[in-house]
Give the backbone structure.
Amino acid sequence: MGDADSWWLPADERVAAPMLLGAVLSRDGISVRITEVEAYAGSVDPASHAFGGLTNRNRVMFGPPARLYTYLIHTHTCANVITSPEGVGGGVLIRAGEVTAGLQRARLNRPGARDEHLARGPGNLCRALGITMADAGADLLDEESPVRLAAGEPVEMISSGPRVGVSRAADVHWRFWITGEPSVSAYRRSPRAPQIG
DNA sequence: AAGCGGATCTACT
DNA sequence: GTAGATCCGCTTC
């Protein structure tokens, strides 16, 4: 796969997503080893925020790659890594991780949660790391950036399945996780998704 | 200017 | 395993 700076870069999110498993996302002294991700394939994917084209909310998705796209849902912040070239709108949702550094601080951010569950679920992962909408657009490969992404150890085994909570394109297996990881969130189909498929 | 849906989480049974 | 809380952004009036 190319040079050291583009290890995460394939434009097709179905390829990029599993490559992010095992990578390390860090903010403010706290690090998380990514254990679960979902691919969102830009404006051709009806489940993606980029579907239907550029709006004020999703503009980071259509920007340059290696940026952090954040969005709010039900009072929670969720984090995505933009993996496509400028103008395409593809990204990978970081759904869960294992805290590997800054454990004390992560616990403070997630009072009452068990260690394996500190970054379980996209909203919880952001809370554990302290990621908020103020971090939107951060350049993940820039040393100066508050949020950074680094390559990690290769992962043992990868499983895949349908994406969690999406009402459209609910049957494609674009969720990937490290097999057997306790931090992986439970699958729940959207109540609005059509029956089976 | 207002309504509605959603890439969720926690608590409770 | 299931129900309910909760609020921002997009669509429509």
Residues 38, 40, 47-49, 71, 73-76, 78, 80, 93, 95, 121-124, 163-167, 188, 190, 192 of chain A lie near DNA strand B (CB under 10 Å from a C1'). The mean pLDDT of chain A is 92. The two ends of chain A are 34 Å apart (CA to CA).
